[in-house]
Structure formats: structure tokens, C-alpha cells
Amino acid sequence: ELGYVPGKRILFNTQVWDNDDGIVAEGYIGLSADLNGEKTSEWAELELGSGPFEGAHWIGENPQPVYGVMTNAYTKLGPGPRLPKTCLRLRRVFRLPAGDIRSAVAQVTGLGAYELHVNGRNVQPDRLLAPSWSNPDFRVHYDAVDVKSALVAGRDNAVGFWLAPGYSDDFSRFGWMWLSPKRAVLTLTVAYADGSTDRIVTDGSWESTDATPILSASIYQGEVCDAGREDALWATPRGAKTGWKPVTVFPDGPATTVNTAPPVRLCERFRPVSIVESEPGVYTVDFVQNLAG
Asked: What global pTM score does this model have?
């Protein structure tokens, strides 16, 4: 039996199967508790047929870079320039009406890898390398994320993605790679105490920028970061207005299915014990710890 933590809201990604092992519905079930730890409410959204992204579109980088084509998961990449390793940001500002927000759940995924930010907060701060790994030729996993505490009723709000290449062409020629433009899809459903709802989706009203502090990101090669390019308010209604462009709206995207795997989490941080300039402009950072995956 689940133990209810006082004041804690718990969200479960959920699938419903029939007797023939077919998925007939998927979505989320949520539970919450009062300060005494007693269960106070349940809320659920289980989708049949079309799934959670009906009316939403895959959106992403603009202009679209020239990418290679992978016919299956085991295609060997030939010689030529590597795919872009820049990290894209997407955002939308929207206003919520005044009222008591009962629940707010974002169903979301992105490729190659994504972070979801709401009003300046990374709403999955200990989650890394989302979505969970899959073969995007066949399906991509999406998550249900409780964002109620990050939203403000009666005011402007902002939701944003930070997209990275993820498992790209520098990962492994035998791995499941994403070799198409970076993109994301989202449905954010806000339910109010009076029974009304609002639904925010990814569409052409969003904007994008590649003017981010991460100039390059790679599973193998790490990051190249310019902290001087950071805009701490980028995923808020007060973020910079210059440097943003309309997003590309893709006519279609990979099939999606709810994620039922445990997430990759940040478990421990290491600080270097020494930093030595071994030659001009070259530094050796010693963590006294093997950091290989």
C-alpha cells in the first residue's frame, strides 16, 4: 500500500491493458494528501485511441538544419560533417484566469533530450536525459508531470523547453539515435475547482532561440558552455524579447507511448580536488573519481 506524504501530490504514469496484451488506454492517475497524511483527492486522465497529444503539434528548431537519414536503428553513418550539437529553447507565454487551480499536469516529451521549465523553474530538477531511451523510429516515451505548484492563476505564465541533441550521431552506430531536427510536443491541462479547464498545447504560437549558454552538447564529448549568454528569465513572462523566432511546426512526428520506466536521476555531485593548467589553455581537472559511464 502506498504511504501518503503530508502535503505531497503523487502522479503515476498509467497504462490499461486488455486480455490480449493490447494497450486500450494510457495517461496518468494522481493522488494527494492533506497535512495529516490522509488521502484527500484523486484525479485522472486516461486517453483512448488518439492519445494525449490530440490538437498538439511537434515543434522545433527553425530553420531546419540539413540532417542525414537513418533507415533503421543499425545504419552506419558515413563520412561528413556531424549533426548540429546546439541546444534549442522553446517557450510560450499564456495567461490563466483567476480561480482555484485544482490540478495542472503537463504530458510532454522531446527529442533528442529535453528539460521542461515553467515560470523559470525546471519542473523535473533531478531528472536527466529525458525522455527514457527508446527507438524513435518506432515510439517515443512521454511523461506526465505535475506542474500545479509552478503556475499562478490570474497572471501571465510561461512554459519552455530546453532541447539537446541527445543520442545523436556521436553516440554509437549500433545505438538508437535521433538524427532529425530537435523537437518537442506538450499538452498542459489546467483544471479549476469550478470544473472548468484550460489546455495549452505546442503549436505555431510558440517561439524558439538557439542563443543559449550551451553552444554544444554531446553524450560523449560533454558541453561547451558560455555563461555570458545565459538569460535566467528565459522561461518566464519577463524573458528577453529579442533573438526569438517563430518555431517550425512539423506535420507529423514519432508515435508516442506513456513512459513506465524509472527515470535517470541525479544521485550525487562531485567537486574537483585540483585544477592544473598542464599547458597554456589546457586544464586537467582531478575529481579523484572515475566519472566514466
From this structure: 0.81
